Amino acid sequence: MRLNLAAVLAASTMMLASAPAMAEPVATDHHVHVHSPAILDFLPAYCSSLGRISACPEVFTRPLTVDDLLTDMDAAGVSRALLMSTAYLAESPMMVPARHDAPDLIRAANDFTVDLARRHPDRLSAFVSVNPLTPTALPEIARWADDPFAAGVKLHLTNSDVDLRDPDDVAALARVFRAAAAGEMTIMIHMRTRAEDYGAKDVGIFLDQVLPQAQGVPVMIAHSGGWGGLDDNTWAAMTAFAEALEEHPETSRSLSFDLAQVFDAETSEADLLRLVALMRRIGIDRFVAGSDWPFSGPLNAYLNNVFARLPLTPAEAELIRSARL
């Protein structure tokens, strides 16, 4: 069979023209972790504690270093990362019995994390962490408020067993937000709680009673309001955020959502379409890239390949890939 060379060349040109341009790598990973030596020593007892609500993933206990992180960032073309301290683990109620030296572990872990940012100021921004319900929280935030290498505060409501429907817990969380705001520290909050019906009610309480205490400092919602993945609770929380922001568009423009572990290579096309629809209702400009490294696995595969599965327009994808808080 003879081929029409002109037709083949024309078809090839059309295919190249319609192929998506190579995307730039994600500029900033807004959610990574490196355990301190103090926390690595603490983990065996913590992971075997009877207070644990689930087993510790193997990757969670690996003695990975900042060099491992930076090497992975280089391979993925990631320029900067927000490094979240895991100090809050030391005062988790899941640690049974509680450690008498937990406040010392908190301070040591936060010292370690901030020192990494001090050593790599062009690559890392450090977030100290606390359990917002303990007496350690406010003094620890105050300790870092004037340190230029402590960019923010990380809060993990699941691990700290914060109940957004308990007025006392909400008041404590609000005080922590005010303290972070006073120090002009960005807040990263893993706001999903242990409530089995977590969702719209919790989002409403957060928006009404907690977020205003941030007084305009940037607030990032980890995992877009869930704890990784897209289950009914995460859909409910994201939908509640979308409805609230549609009704009150004046809600703090400093509120953003990281996409760390919200979807992966196995997420269905239908769920990806549903996710993007909700992202557009909330505002694409409120979403930032994140991995939850090392849970993500290699950053290049996650940030530059898995992220490409999102059915975004080129302009939307570029907005997220270039975002930097």
Order of helices and strands: HEHHEHEHEHHEHEHEHEHH
Query: Which residues form runs of ≥5 with pLDDT under 50?
Result: 1-22
How many distinct helices?
A: 12
Share of β-strand residues: 5-15%
- CA radius of gyration is 21 Å
* CATH topology-level fold name: TIM Barrel
Mean pLDDT: 93
* Structural class determined from secondary elements: alpha/beta
Query: What would the principal axes of the Cα set say about the shape?
Result: globular
How many domains? 1
CATH second-level architecture: Alpha-Beta Barrel
Question: What distance separates the N and C termini?
Answer: 59 Å
Q: Report strand order across the widest sheet.
A: 1-2-3-4-5-6-7-8
Give the class-level CATH name. Alpha Beta
Say what oligomer this is. Answer: single chain
Description:
The chain is α/β, with parallel strands linked by helices. The protein has one domain: TIM Barrel (Alpha-Beta Barrel), CATH 3.20.20. The protein has 12 helices and 8 strands. Helix 5 packs parallel to helix 7, helix 8 (200-210) crosses helix 9 and helix 9 (232-247) runs parallel beside helix 10 (269-282). The longest helix is centred in the middle third of the chain and has 18 residues, at 102-119.
